[in-house]
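R.M. (postdoc): so does anyone remember the format we settled on? I'll just put the structure tokens first.
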């Protein structure tokens, strides 16, 4: 059967344009002038000739050359060859071209980067008394610096995360570390309360964005079927920070003074920031797609600039520009708040914030409880935070693997095919059931553990009692945090950093309130009843999760239908983007090659 080449040149419909009759005659007479092999080799050349003639006609260089045929018949190409070519066209590009070991390395790196936010908060606790004494202020005023730290920890990521979704992860990381480093230097040399208050806010603004960026990098590199495991890796730094911070802070304050705490953070963040600048590649899918598209030169790591490219790129030299995900062109600092206009996301954010507030209430009051009941010094108090950190760390392997296992089980039950390194379209998949079926049991078990912690602390039992309960509380609550964060990222695939920033905004603002009232509440009703109240609130508000579990997928389907009809004016701001993009959403300004991408 003869192969047929259709003319799709849009210039053929222009007034006064008639094409190139010579090209037509030459193309249709190939079978008379060339052998079969020559006909096959000439195919691409003849199509190129017709295209070039069209371009010259548009530039005015060809005058009435004659019509370009709508169909050019070339009989020299065997039908089997055409069929083979079509069969070899890939049905879909890999979600990420990086090998498994490189993914894990990048995620571990951003996990360590995210540790600067929680460690900056907890490393401060053992030094509170000495700071208040040196600055001649009360402990109540020093506690205000903790509250303001949490407030800015919630607000700042909304700005940097949206910037990262539009311009890339690397520049966002470098901005965060630059601000954080400058704030720590100022904190180490300041000697007034006003300076302490302002610089702590600046420190929080620089460090808090790293948590949202870490989750965004996980979304860039992993599909939904494997995201539970990778979120576990990414959360290691976040969970280790609250445990390691008090130990490091207690040792530094005890032997070197409270200023050494901030000098330690200067050195730590300086080294970590340098490693990120040299090693971390750009992963934002709006910039590099699945990793095959090279980033602009200014946005490449030092490793790439030196010429040592990723091994995956050497094996896949052709950039796949169609994997670039179209997003907002301009950063919108209010995008995090707009995400909460969706009722499903709002319910998840509300419950996740309550869960986090109770967890922070336990951590922030542990220092005073251990000091008053066991008369521990700052080093001993710091060591008692270790069970929380170890429990949180182990949950990354247990809960993360359970999340992935349950996703595969639900996918098989609902008929969703899972291919390795291929993103799943959740348009008709009830991902809410896959995630919350793990979260809900964890929360109810955490309620029992936090009640037990409160009452063993209330009755001044042996230290082993509170320590064991702290381990299980940290393990269960951290697992619930991971599954809720994973669900939020799943539902907001094209703007994961913004979605995690919205989660951080709600959690930190509510957590700041919980920290402010926790100590006065304990003094009034005791640690036992305070812990019971926290568990009671977790149970009372758990219908938020049950509602998402039962109706979340239905709400998402209704929202998608209304968006398609144009009924939702916030379509481009708050819609779910967990579904695969339609053909209309493929970027129109895809560069033609690496040279054009380099210019951009």
């Amino acid at each position: 059967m003869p192969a047929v080449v259709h003319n799709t040149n849009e210039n053929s419909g222009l007034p006064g344009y008639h094409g190139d009759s010579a090209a037509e005659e030459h193309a249709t007479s190939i079978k008379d002038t060339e052998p079969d092999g020559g006909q096959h080799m000439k195919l691409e050349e003849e199509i190129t000739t017709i295209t070039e003639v069209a371009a010259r006609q548009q530039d005015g260089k060809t005058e009435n050359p004659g019509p370009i045929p709508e169909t050019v018949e070339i009989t020299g190409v065997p039908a089997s060859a055409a069929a083979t070519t079509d069969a070899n066209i890939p049905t879909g590009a890999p979600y990420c071209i990086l090998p498994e070991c490189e993914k894990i390395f990048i995620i571990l790196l951003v996990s360590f980067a995210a540790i600067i936010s929680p460690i900056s908060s907890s490393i401060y606790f053992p030094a509170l008394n000495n700071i208040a004494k040196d600055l001649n202020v009360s402990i109540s005023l020093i506690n205000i610096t903790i509250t303001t730290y949490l407030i800015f920890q919630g607000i700042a990521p909304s700005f940097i995360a949206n910037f990262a979704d539009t311009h890339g992860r690397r520049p966002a990381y470098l901005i965060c570390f630059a601000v954080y480093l400058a704030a720590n230097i100022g904190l180490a040399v300041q000697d007034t309360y006003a300076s302490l208050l302002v610089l702590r806010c600046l420190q929080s603004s620089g460090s808090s964005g790293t948590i949202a960026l870490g989750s965004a990098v996980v979304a860039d590199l992993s599909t939904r079927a494997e995201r539970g495991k990778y979120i576990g890796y990414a959360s290691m730094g976040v969970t280790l920070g609250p445990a390691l911070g008090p130990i490091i802070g207690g040792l530094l304050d005890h032997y070197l003074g409270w200023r050494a705490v901030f000098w330690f953070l200067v050195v730590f963040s300086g080294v970590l920031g340098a490693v990120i600048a040299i090693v971390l590649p750009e992963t934002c899918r709006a910039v590099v797609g699945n990793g095959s598209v090279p980033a602009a030169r200014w946005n490449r790591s030092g490793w790439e600039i030196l010429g040592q490219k990723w091994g995956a790129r050497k094996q896949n030299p052709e950039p796949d520009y169609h994997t670039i995900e179209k997003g907002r062109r301009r950063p919108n600092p209010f995008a995090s708040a707009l995400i909460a206009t969706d009722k499903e996301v709002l319910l998840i954010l509300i419950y996740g914030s309550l869960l986090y507030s109770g967890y922070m209430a336990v951590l922030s009051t542990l220092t005073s409880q251990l000091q008053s009941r066991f008369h521990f010094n700052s080093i001993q108090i710091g060591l008692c935070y270790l069970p929380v950190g170890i429990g949180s760390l182990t949950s990354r392997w247990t809960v993360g693997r359970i999340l992935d296992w349950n996703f595969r089980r639900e996918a098989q039950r609902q008929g969703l095919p899972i291919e390795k390194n291929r993103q799943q379209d959740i348009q008709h998949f009830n991902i809410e059931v896959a995630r919350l079926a793990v979260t809900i049991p964890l929360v109810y078990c955490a309620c029992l553990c936090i009640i037990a912690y409160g009452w063993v602390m209330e009755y001044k039992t042996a230290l082993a009692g509170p320590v064991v309960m702290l381990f299980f509380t940290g393990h269960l609550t951290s697992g619930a945090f991971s599954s809720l964060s994973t669900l939020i990222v799943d539902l907001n695939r094209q703007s994961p950093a913004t979605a995690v920033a919205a989660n951080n905004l709600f959690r930190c603002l509510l957590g700041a309130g919980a920290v402010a009232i926790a100590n006065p509440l304990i003094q009034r009703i005791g640690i036992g009843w305070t812990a019971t109240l926290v568990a009671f609130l977790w149970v009372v508000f758990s219908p938020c999760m049950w509602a998402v579990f039962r109706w979340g997928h239905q709400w998402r389907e209704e929202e998608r239908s209304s968006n398609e009809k144009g009924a939702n004016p916030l379509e481009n701001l708050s819609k779910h983007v967990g579904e695969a993009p339609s053909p209309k959403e493929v970027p129109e300004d895809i560069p033609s090659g690496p040279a054009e991408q380099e210019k951009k």
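R.M.: ...and that's the designed sequence above, right after the tokens. Also worth knowing: The longest strand covers residues 3-6. The first helix runs from residue 21 to 28.
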